[in-house]
DNA sequence: TCTATCTCAATAATGATTATCCTTAAATAA
DNA sequence: TTATTTAAGGATAATCATTATTGAGATAGA
C-alpha cells in the first residue's frame, strides 16, 4: 500500500501514522496492536480512529482482515494472494507464499462458484518450541 | 461423536439435547444456532449451558471450533481432518474432504514444527448466485 | 439412600467492535 | 489565501459474543 495520496482518501496525521505503521509490517497486528504502537507517536489518537481507518483501508482493498485468531481480528497490509502459518501457542502469524494445487471436488465446483482460497498452516514457532522443552523438564503436559 | 456415554462426561438432558443436535449436523452452527434450536425442546435451556457444553466437548476432542466466520465462532462435530468451502455472501459452510498436497517452503519447515493445515475455499453458493442474478436486473453492484 | 461433587440457570462481567454526536481539520475552488 | 463544503477525529456509549460467578439443584457412586 505504497501510494495513499492519490487514492481519494483524505489524508490526516492519524491516518498517515497508521498507514506508516502498517506498510510492510509482517506482524499481522490487531486493532489494539495498531492503537498501542501509533499512540506512542500521536498520544491524542483514539481507538475509534484506528477502527475507522481500518475500515477505510479494508473497503479500498489496501488491507486484508484475517480470521485466523479466534480472539481478535488481525490485519495484513500485503494484499497479494498468499497463505499463513500460525503458531498454535503464541499465535504468531507468518506469511507463506507459493502456489498450491488445491481444487475442490467436482460436486462442489458444480454448485458453488469458486472465488478463492486460503491455506492456514499450523505449527509451533521456534520460541514456543524452546519454551515447551523447558517446561517439559518440570511440568508434564 | 457417537458414544458419549463412556467418555467420562456426566450426562444430563441438556447435554444430550445439545449432542443430539450436533451429531451429524453438517451446518457448522454457532453457539446461538445451537441455543435457538435446542431451546425448542428444552425451553429452560440457558445460553451459558450451551457455551459450557461446547467447552466440554471441545476439550475432549468431540467438537472443533471453526475460525472462518469473523462474526462468530462456529462448530463442527466432524473431527476428521477436512477442509471447508464458505459462501462469501451468506457464510454457509460446506465440508470438503480430500487430501491436498500442501507443503510449506523449506525456510518455514526448518523453524516451525508443523502440526496441521486447513484450507478455506471461498465461493458463492447456488442460492446466492441466484440472488445475485436477480439483483443485477435492477440494482447495479 | 446418602453424600460429595458436578451441572444448571440466571446474571453479571469482560473484551472486541461498532455507532453516535459534536467538534475540528482537510480538500477544493473562488 | 480564504471561504466553504465535506469528511475525519475524539470521546464515549452501545452492542454483541463470550466468559465468569454463584447459589440451588441434580447426578453418580458408595
List keywords for this structure.
homodimer, 141 residues, alpha+beta, Arc Repressor Mutant, subunit A, Dna Ligase, domain 1, two-stranded antiparallel sheet, 5 helices, 5 strands, 38% helix, flat, DNA-binding
Characterization of this structure:
The structure is a homodimer of 141-residue chains. In chain A, the strands form two sheets. Chain A has a three-stranded mixed beta sheet. In chain A, strands 1-2 form a two-stranded antiparallel ribbon. Chain A has two domains: 1-79, Winged helix-like DNA-binding domain superfamily/Winged helix DNA-binding domain (Arc Repressor Mutant, subunit A, Orthogonal Bundle), CATH 1.10.10.10; 80-141, Ferric-uptake regulator, C-terminal dimerisarion domain (Dna Ligase, domain 1, 2-Layer Sandwich), CATH 3.30.1490. The mean pLDDT of chain A is 88. With 141 residues, chain A is α+β, with helices and mostly antiparallel strands. Chain A starts with 12 loop residues before the first helix and ends with a helix. Chain A has helices spanning 13-22, 31-41, 47-59, 106-111, 126-138; strands at residues 64-66, 74-76, 83-87, 93-96, 113-124. Chains A and B meet through strand 5 of A and strand 5 of B. Strand 5 of chain A pairs antiparallel with strand 5 (113-124) of chain B. Chain A binds a DNA duplex (30 and 30 nucleotides) through helix 3.
Report a brief summary of the structure.
The structure is a homodimer of 141-residue chains. With 141 residues, the first copy, chain A, is an alpha+beta fold.
Amino acid at each position: 500500500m505504497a501510494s495513499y495520496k492519490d487514492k481519494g482518501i483524505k489524508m490526516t496525521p492519524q491516518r498517515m501514522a497508521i498507514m506508516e505503521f502498517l506498510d510492510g509490517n509482517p506482524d499481522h497486528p490487531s486493532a489494539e496492536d495498531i492503537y498501542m504502537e501509533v499512540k506512542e507517536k500521536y498520544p491524542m489518537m483514539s481507538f475509534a480512529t484506528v477502527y475507522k481507518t481500518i475500515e477505510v483501508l479494508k473497503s479500498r482493498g489496501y488491507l486484508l482482515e484475517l480470521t485466523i485468531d479466534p480472539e481478535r481480528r488481525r490485519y495484513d497490509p500485503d494484499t497479494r494472494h498468499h497463505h499463513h502459518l500460525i503458531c498454535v501457542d503464541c499465535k504468531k502469524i507468518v506469511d507463506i507464499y507459493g502456489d498450491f494445487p488445491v481444487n475442490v471436488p467436482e460436486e462442489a465446483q458444480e454448485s458453488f462458484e469458486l472465488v478463492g482460497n486460503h491455506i492456514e498452516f499450523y505449527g509451533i514457532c521456534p520460541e514456543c518450541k524452546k519454551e515447551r522443552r523447558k517446561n517439559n523438564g518440570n511440568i508434564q503436559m
